[in-house]
Amino acid sequence: MSDLPAIAQTILSAPGVLRIIMLDQRGVVRAQAGEKDERKLADYISFISVTSTQLRTYLNISAPHNARVTLSSGQALLILFGEELTAGILLEQDTDYFDIIDNFASIVNEMKL
């Protein structure tokens, strides 16, 4: 099993990252770090992850690698899909999400439970 709290802290330390939530394939939160989540981001990330998996089979499409949603506040929620875990990363407004993808997508994909 990966050291999920340590990985969460590493991702949180990247410039522009406000919060990270890691969920397993069933939508259970396995690790989190950063500002308090009063917006129920974990529920939203879980919904996107589980729905994506279901639609992938139905539509016969390849697995997504990431998704990005812009919140009304201007912050972005970047979702990185891995083999066993999904990471939702809340970013400050105007943070270059490509840098986050480049630095952490392969780490998220390789994380094991």
From TrEMBL:
Full protein name: Uncharacterized protein
Organism: Pelovirga terrestris
